TrEMBL record:
The keyword Transmembrane helix applies. Residues 37-217 form the Nitric oxide reductase subunit B cytochrome c-like domain. The chain crosses the membrane at residues 7-26, 230-254, 285-308, 335-357, 369-393, 413-434, 446-467, 479-507, 514-535, 547-567, 587-610, 630-649, 669-690, 724-745. It comes from Alcanivorax xiamenensis. Keywords: Membrane, Transmembrane, Transmembrane helix. This is Nitric oxide reductase large subunit. PANTHER family: CYTOCHROME B SUBUNIT OF NITRIC OXIDE REDUCTASE, CYTOCHROME C OXIDASE SUBUNIT 1. InterPro entries: Cyt_c_oxase-like_su1_sf (IPR036927), Cyt_C_Oxase_1 (IPR000883), NorB_cytochrome_c-like (IPR054309). It comes from the Bacteria.
Length: 757
């Protein structure tokens, strides 16, 4: 118990310190967010736009898919440009050309190097000087800049409309014709784009870096990495090396004191517990998991194909019906839905086991209600996404019923409330099973940790309600990453670790002491870096240097526990040899082995690749980001959800025998397909873009001219092979689950037996 006490106090201290940092520097985000001017005026007093105009543009951007069509401040999709970097560069070029014609009577490109350098110095001073008046909320721009803004806005208004001369560009950017039909909304959209570019080019009043810490890289105005960026990048690498060293030393020392493994039971203990009605009702959850999984995989193929044909799918003009931004929205949202459903099913399967093999009263009814509520939220949110991006949804309803515009939380606010309500209801169902077990005497430390992780999953999704349709972009990003990073990468990770430990303990394969100690230690390690590490997504989202420092320091520690997961994979694989009946667990365990591998590679190696500030400065918004996203989201959480799905299926269909051939092909094709996607396309494209971003600027690395060159087109076509391999693997696993749910024989009812809970 003393050993547990130390681990509990360590976990409590970690949570107290890390959430204090997250909260304190969160207030810094509120205080130091780039100001949205009440008015933008020219030197002669002409009003160009107001605060409401800029926020109207933000809502217009949300309605076309927001981050699913290009990106802002580096966050979003990768085929269309980053609109901040692209607007800024276009406006700068227009300014230089206007100045050259005004001073020298020639276009800028016709000038010699000396005169170009003189104009670039004037350009830097004009753009980096802060002309925002805090007292009256007025931003003043020169008449020349106002003219450059108007020329840039005209291009964007035509691009987001249906101007025939830009049809080829829209194809390159995978934009449908008439992306935003309303001329007034296109005008507002350009004003929002201008504001994001102004914040990226203008120095803070109290410093020599822009509001976005000099991002994006734009040599024309000396947008270069700050000294703090380089310093904290080096510190993060040093901390990573030190953390890995101390972890290996500590882990090796602690391993010498581990108790021996308990003898494996002669029979599977969980198979001796009679299935409850609520557990039998979980088959439809497993069907929903693989249905959404299959849907997501095919959508992913469609999204990838859009990067080579733009508006067509092998000649068919798909974009007018299901444009890129819609398919990408559905692709990401369906992933979140099926992965979450897999986790929910695992929890609902465990609840009766924890409760001594019995259902709490009305548990089956609750399980059924939750399932149909999930279906309503999935279908409703997808329909809302379609109506929004098709510009059918009335603009005043878009945020609530259509598309929020923010990657990973794209669903309309009403559906987001529905999802939160469903997860909260799942929490209630879980606690009804856990509560009675907690009141029994005995060692309940592992169960308490499981309860805490379940509670965190049930409640922390509510962080998404702290921003609204017209919330400042920097503040929205702070709360969005509470969901994407903290909720998913933090508490789901703790739940998965603890749930697996709980399952293996109840199977009699590990001792309670080892399961509890490992879960508590893992939770502390994950959350130490994971909670304040949320800030590593906010380096360039209108935040200050302290936010960068905290994010770089602690997010480096996120990688530390992942380096020993290769050993965890080995440990999990050995579990299959502990008892003959573990042969029936071969494929769930194989998925858990894959989780450990992809956690190390996808979350660890590829995660740290984009983690230090100096690295992310150049590659944020490039194809290096989906390398990490695919390897971590599917490789870790996807395989976890599939492992949980197969595990639950194995018990709710006790006489089902997995098809070794089907599962072997499915499992390995999923892994091989994921490797091929990354190695033959995403990573090479990202590295080539990385070079372009360093040498020319972010605008160029995402430009039409660069992205449509033959080499990159070929690499994106090559990805088709990996996609096909992955799809075949997905279909194999999905068919195993569907056939098991529909045709798997049921075992006769057994007498209830007390579990190890």
């Amino acid at each position: 118990m003393a050993h547990y006490r130390k681990l509990w106090w360590t976990l409590i201290a970690v949570l107290a310190v890390t959430f204090a940092l997250l909260g304190y520097f969160g207030t810094e985000v509120y205080r130091k967010a780039p100001p949205i001017p009440d008015r933008v005026v020219t030197e002669d007093g002409t009003v160009l736009m107001t605060r409401d105009d800029i926020l109207d543009g933000q809502t217009a951007w949300q309605s076309v898919g927001g981050m699913q069509l290009g990106s802002i401040w580096g966050h979003g999709a990768y085929q269309a440009p980053d609109w901040t970097a692209d607007w800024l560069h276009r406006e700068l070029i227009h300014w230089l050309d206007l100045a050259a014609r005004e001073r020298y009577g020639q276009p800028y490109d016709a000038l010699d190097n000396e005169h170009q350098a003189m104009l670039q110095r004037a350009l830097r001073d004009a753009y980096r000087t802060n002309t925002f008046g805090e007292s009256d909320g007025t931003l003043t721009v020169s008449n020349r800049r106002a003219e450059a803004m108007a020329l840039t806005a005209d291009y964007y208004s035509r691009l987001f409309g249906d101007a025939p001369e830009l049809r080829g560009t829209r194809q390159s950017y995978a934009m449908k014709e008439g992306t935003l039909p309303s001329e007034n909304r296109r005008r507002a959209l350009t004003q929002f784009f201008f504001w994001t570019a102004w914040a990226a080019a203008t120095e803070r009043p109290d410093g020599d870096a822009t509001y976005t810490n000099n991002w994006p890289h734009e040599p024309l105005i000396d947008n270069l990495p700050t000294a703090e960026n380089i310093v904290w990048s080096i510190i993060s690498i040093i901390l990573l090396i030190a953390g890995v060293g101390f972890l290996i030393l500590g882990w090796a020392f602690l391993r010498r004191h581990d108790e021996g493994e308990p003898p494996a039971p002669a029979r599977d203990p969980l198979s001796l517990v009679s299935l409850t009605p609520s557990q039998r009702a979980l088959g439809k959850y497993l069907f929903l998991v693989v249905a959404l999984f299959t849907f997501q995989v095919f959508l992913g193929g469609g999204v990838a194909h859009y990067t080579v044909e733009g508006q067509h799918f092998y000649g068919f003009e798909l974009s007018q019906y299901f444009p890129y931004s819609l398919l990408r929205t559905w692709h990401i949202q369906s992933a979140l839905f099926w992965i979450a459903t897999g986790f929910l099913a695992a929890g609902l399967f465990l609840a009766p086991i924890i409760n001594g093999g019995k259902d709490p009263k009305f548990q089956k009814l609750g399980v059924d209600v939750l399932f149909w509520a999930l279906v309503v939220v999935v279908v409703g949110s997808f329909v809302g996404n379609y109506l929004a991006i098709a510009q059918i949804m009335p603009e005043n309803l878009n945020f609530w019923l259509g598309h929020q515009g923010y990657e990973y939380v794209d669903l309309g606010r009403l559906w987001q409330i529905g999802k939160f309500t469903g997860v909260a209801f799942w929490l209630v169902l879980m606690l009804r099973g856990i509560g009675p077990a907690l009141r029994k005497p005995g060692d309940k430390h592992l169960l308490v940790l499981l309860t805490a992780s379940v509670t965190a999953i049930g409640l922390f999704y509510g962080a998404g309600f702290f921003y609204g349709e017209r919330t400042h972009l920097s503040i929205m990003e702070y709360w969005r990453w509470w969901i994407v990073h903290l909720w998913v990468e933090g508490f789901f990770e703790v739940f998965a670790t603890t749930a697996l430990a709980f399952i293996f303990y109840n199977l009699g394969l590990v001792s309670r002491t080892v399961a509890t100690g490992a879960s508590l230690a893992s939770a502390s390690l994950f959350l130490l870096g994971g909670v304040p590490g949320t800030f590593h997504h906010l380096y360039f989202a209108g935040t200050t240097t302290p936010v960068m420092a905290v994010g770089a320091t602690f997010s480096a520690l996120e990688v530390v526990p992942l380096v020993v997961l290769g050993y965890e994979a080995w440990e999990h694989s050995k579990l299959r040899e502990r008892a003959p009946w573990m042969g029936q667990m071969k494929w769930p365990v194989a998925c858990f082995v894959a989780v450990a591998f992809w956690n190390m590679l996808g979350a660890g190696v590829f995660g740290f690749m984009i983690n230090p500030p100096i690295s992310l400065y150049y590659i944020q918004g490039l194809n290096t980001t989906p390398v990490h996203a695919h390897a971590a989201l599917f490789g870790v959480y996807g395989f976890l959800a599939l492992g949980f799905t197969l595990l639950v299926l194995r018990y709710i269909r006790p006489q089902l025998q997995f098809s070794d051939r089907l599962m072997r092909n499915g499992f390995w094709l999923l892994n091989i397909g994921l490797v091929l996607m990354i190695a033959t396309s995403l990573l090479p494209v990202g590295l080539i873009q990385f070079h372009a971003s360093v040498s020319e600027g972010m605008w160029y690395a995402r430009s039409e001219a660069f992205m449509q060159q033959d080499l990159l087109q070929t690499l994106r076509w090559v990805r088709t092979f990996g996609d096909v391999v992955f799809i075949i693997g997905a279909l194999a696993v999905a068919w195993q689950v569907v056939s098991g749910v529909l045709f798997g024989a049921r075992a006769p009812a057994l007498e209830p037996a007390e579990s190890n809970a």
